[in-house]
Automatic annotation (TrEMBL):
Keywords: Heme, Iron, Membrane, Metal-binding, Monooxygenase, Oxidoreductase, Transmembrane, Transmembrane helix
Entry's EC annotation: 1.14.14.137
PROSITE patterns on file: CYTOCHROME_P450
Major place of residence: membrane
InterPro entries linked: Cyt_P450, Cyt_P450_CS, Cyt_P450_E_grp-I, Cyt_P450_sf
One Gene Ontology cellular component annotation held by this UniProt entry: membrane
Protein name: (+)-abscisic acid 8'-hydroxylase
The organism's taxonomic lineage, starting at the top: Eukaryota, Viridiplantae, Streptophyta, Embryophyta, Tracheophyta
CDD domains per record: CYP90-like
Cofactor section: heme
Catalysis performed (reactions): 2-cis-(+)-abscisate + reduced [NADPH--hemoprotein reductase] + O2 = (+)-8'-hydroxyabscisate + oxidized [NADPH--hemoprotein reductase] + H2O + H(+)
Assigned protein family: Belongs to the cytochrome P450 family.
Known role: Involved in the oxidative degradation of abscisic acid.
Length: 466
């Protein structure tokens, strides 16, 4: 969904005026996938917007099968709704499909952030990011994440109405900065937080150089972020502290000829990781609070599992450990099921770098290719009664390539361990010490830009008297 909003502004104009290639001319004998392209240029964009995007994809899949073509947001595209097709694009033939983002988005995050790249540079950065977010690295963060969870929960208690999603964003941002900087001085943290939120607000707005607009403000705030980060980086370089956070591994990284990463490249990647970490995790956490609220039996089961740990820790007098988080089997399945049902990253985008053939169909060079994660996660063949929230279905592992909430292949999510860990920790403190009520009984979905419960799930929280 994020990508839909993200594409509308930039690519529409780009393809309209510059790329007047005729996508219907087909040099080879192979045929294009089935599907309709709609009107030239406008394509099927209006159909996509006049209905829920997911029912657009669903009805296409029903009509044409697991691979079909369409033309949205100025781009001829091939959509892939099957597990093997997704694997083909993301894993086995990943070198034939490059990441693709509008320039206006690249500019806000920073063009050197790893997810815009492929090949050597991507591999180098990916190793650094992956190592600092691997289980061995994040397990040392458990006590600090616990303290962050307790403090954010404490700030909600007392029964005032809070916007769950906005509050979860504070938590996921703090956890993100913890993984990146370790314990960052609080003045830097505040400056980063405020400026970053301006960047975040401008991300899905229309890109323009007109002063006063959200995008313009975001570009300015991004510049200030670069300055703050460069100050933090030079302080860190002087001190040569031996910490194990992402910032240090970026600073200390040496290329084949011993070359260091420039401050700009470091800053782009730090902002990239923050960007990838915050809204995603916060959306999933918000859904989990809704699912747990709506199903009291499930909530009791999660609470029972966590109370055993809580009591073993002398009612929280000893802090939660990494090993304990690994023992939360019921809670873990709730997270898996939330990732599946909510499928907050409904699909991703790549671009074919050459003419590619898949199962007798041609994917022409330059076309966008979209693996549809949500369609796969909601296919009754793989997940019976797919819209029913039922964590027990994860007692059996899903079939290969049918469950990809964190993507797959070279660009799959390096933050998945941290995301799961911070969710386990927050849920542990929530269910053992708090109860909550939702302000709106009717369900509804909003895009912020990831799907979240309506209005960010306004709720009231109370500390529970045991
Ligand atoms: C529940 C929360 C999260 C979900 C559902 C999620 C999902 C994803 C997905 C699907 C991708 C692949 C996108 C693609 O192939 O186009 C991805 C990439 C990425 N994620 Fe996450 N993510 C989450 C949390 C995080 C966190 C907490 C971090 C970092 C602390 C993070 C860092 C990244 C980075 C850096 C990439 C780009 C990797 C690359 O291009 O090599 N994510 N994420
Ligand atoms: C943004 O960063 C600058 C420093 O570059 C700082 O002075 C300012 O307080 C920060 N916050 C906002 C909201 O601009
Ligand atoms: C936890 O600590 C508090 C205060 O230090 C104490 O009153 C309480 O008895 C302790 N709980 C347990 C189960 O040890």
């Amino acid at each position: 969904m994020i990508y839909i909003i993200l594409f509308i502004s930039t690519f529409l104009s780009y393809h309209f005026f510059i790329k007047r290639q005729t996508w219907w001319s087909n040099p080879s004998k192979t045929k294009l996938p089935p599907g309709s392209m709609g009107w030239p240029y406008i394509g099927e964009t209006l159909q996509l917007y006049s209905q829920n995007p997911n029912s657009f994809f669903d009805s296409k899949q029903k009509r044409y099968g697991e691979i079909f073509k369409t033309h949205i947001l100025g781009c001829p595209s091939v959509m892939l709704a099957g597990p093997e097709a997704a694997r083909f694009v993301l894993v086995s033939q990943a070198h034939l499909f490059k990441p693709t983002y509008p320039k206006s988005k690249e500019r806000l995050i920073g063009p050197s952030a790893l997810f815009f790249h492929q090949g050597e540079y991507h591999t180098r950065l990916r190793k650094l990011v992956q190592a600092s977010l691997a289980p061995d690295a994040v397990r040392s963060l458990v006590p600090d994440i616990g303290a962050l969870a307790e403090s954010v929960l404490d700030s909600w208690a007392g029964g005032r109405v809070v916007n769950t999603y906005q509050e979860m964003k504070k938590f996921s941002f703090d956890v993100g900065t913890l993984a990146i900087f370790g314990r960052l001085e609080s003045c830097y943290k505040e400056e980063l937080k405020k400026n970053y939120s301006i960047v975040n607000e401008g991300y899905n707005s229309f890109p323009t150089k007109i002063p006063g607009t959200l995008y313009y403000k975001a570009v300015k705030a991004r510049k200030r972020l670069g300055e703050i980060l460069s100050e933090i980086i030079s302080k860190r370089r002087e001190k040569r502290m031996e910490t194990n956070d992402l910032l240090d591994s970026l600073i200390n990284s040496k290329g084949d000829q011993g070359e260091l990463l420039s401050d700009d490249r470091i800053a782009d990647n730090i902002i990239g990781v923050l960007f990838a970490a915050q809204d995603t995790t916060a959306s999933v956490l918000t859904w989990i609070l809704k699912y747990l609220h709506d199903d009291s039996k499930l909530r009791d089961a999660v609470r029972a599992e966590n109370m055993v740990i809580y009591e073993a820790n002398k009612e929280g007098n000893r802090s939660l450990t990494w090993v304990q988080t690994k023992s939360m089997q019921v809670t873990y399945k709730v997270i898996m099921e939330a990732l599946r049902v909510a499928s907050i990253i409904s699909f991703t985008f790549r671009e074919a770098v050459a003419d590619v053939e898949y199962k007798g169909y041609l994917i022409p060079k330059g076309w966008k290719v979209m693996p549809l994660f949500r369609n796969i996660h909601h296919n009754p063949e793989f997940f019976p009664d797919p819209l029913n929230f039922d964590p027990s279905r994860f007692e059996v592992s899903p079939k290969p390539n049918t469950f990809m909430p964190f993507g797959s292949g070279v660009h799959s999510c390096p933050g998945n361990e941290l995301a799961k860990l911070e969710i386990l920790i927050l849920v542990h403190h929530l269910v053992t010490k708090y109860r909550w009520e939702l302000m709106e009984s009717q369900s509804g979905i909003e895009y912020g830009p990831f799907p979240i419960p309506k209005s960010g799930l306004p709720a009231r929280f109370w500390k529970q008297t045991l």
